[in-house]
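ok, trying the design again with the full structure, not the truncated one.
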């Protein structure tokens, strides 16, 4: 029963990240209800695991670190650019990701997520330049950060929890 629940919660978390990414790509908004659902799924996942992989403290530290790191980046970016540079939804998403991943994992997710966002931005800039038959212009490019951070969370989650997921699959069959 725990194995089925573990898989169900893990894949539900990935599904919610997919929904969040889709919404962010379309609207540049990460709805609080979906971010809260992702955070709750993370807590339930760790509860089912008995907090063996990540302690309650590690999860709390990860949530705080993810939130405050992105909040600080947002504050500096907003000050420098004199406009919103990163949405609060992205800040809350990394706070929720920290629940799943803990302190070390959330920093890895932020790094991978930023790199994924960079790749997404470059590809999108090339596409826009090709479509408009103009040179590449990165100065006015707007891309949502949520999908990149979601990719970072998924990649780190796969690295961190692969043995739990594999073992759960093996126990089912």
């Amino acid at each position: 029963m725990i194995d089925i629940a573990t898989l169900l919660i893990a894949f539900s978390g990935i599904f919610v990240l997919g929904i969040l990414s889709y919404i962010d790509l379309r609207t540049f908004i990460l709805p609080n209800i979906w971010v809260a659902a992702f955070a709750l799924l993370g807590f339930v996942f760790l509860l089912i695991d008995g907090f063996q992989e990540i302690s309650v403290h590690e999860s709390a530290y990860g949530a705080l670190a993810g939130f405050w790191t992105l909040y600080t980046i947002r504050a500096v970016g907003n000050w420098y650019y004199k406009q919103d540079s990163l949405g609060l939804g992205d800040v809350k998403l990394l706070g929720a990701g920290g629940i799943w991943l803990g302190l070390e994992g959330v920093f890895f997710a932020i790094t991978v997520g930023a790199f994924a966002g960079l790749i997404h931005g470059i590809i999108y800039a090339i596409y826009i330049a090709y479509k408009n038959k103009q040179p590449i212009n990165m100065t006015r490019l707007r891309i949502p950060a949520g999908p990149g951070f979601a990719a970072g969370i998924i990649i780190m989650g796969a690295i961190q929890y692969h043995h739990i997921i594999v073992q759960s699959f093996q126990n089912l069959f």
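Keeping the full-length input from now on. Helices lie at 2-27, 32-48, 56-81, 88-132, 146-172.
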